[in-house]
Amino acid sequence: MNYIKRIDELGGAPKAIEKGYIQKEIQNSAYNYQMEVESEERIVVGVNKFQIEEQEHKDILKVDPEVERLQREKLKRLKEERDNKEVENRLEELKNAAGTDKNLMPYILEAVKVYATLGEICGVLREVFGEYQQSVIL
């Protein structure tokens, strides 16, 4: 109840987040937890007690750089072959709809149907809504 009272005093959860209160509380809690683990005041099986020797994992996924090159080529070819004017129109419609309270899913689907990329769709939405910027207070 003390946390809820403090958050209410700060103006509610959104204000508490903006002021960094909640992040600071999480940071402090994580720090205290880690200090307890390192001092062995808190026992974590397999981390600071009762550890066993294990072989290293050998089958870790490693992506071949060639995959990136091929994907870039595919994307370039897609943008050359699609109707870019139609893509622009659908993205503009999405942008206009995003400025309202309309359901955006139909607009997103129309953009996808004309081969707008995820990056292009997200870019339009970032233009309208912005991008969340975490406020970190140390």
UniProtKB/TrEMBL annotation:
Ranges annotated as spanning the membrane: none
Keyword field contains Metal-binding: no
Gene Ontology molecular function terms on file: cobalamin binding; methylmalonyl-CoA mutase activity
Coiled-coil region(s): 68-104
Domain Methylmalonyl-CoA mutase alpha/beta chain catalytic: 2-131
Gene3D superfamilies: Methylmalonyl-CoA mutase
Domain of life, source organism: Bacteria
Entry EC number(s): 5.4.99.2
This protein's UniProt keywords: Coiled coil, Isomerase
SUPFAM superfamilies found in the cross-reference section: Cobalamin (vitamin B12)-dependent enzymes
Keyword Isomerase among UniProt keywords: yes
Protein name: Methylmalonyl-CoA mutase
Annotated organism of origin: [Clostridium] ultunense Esp
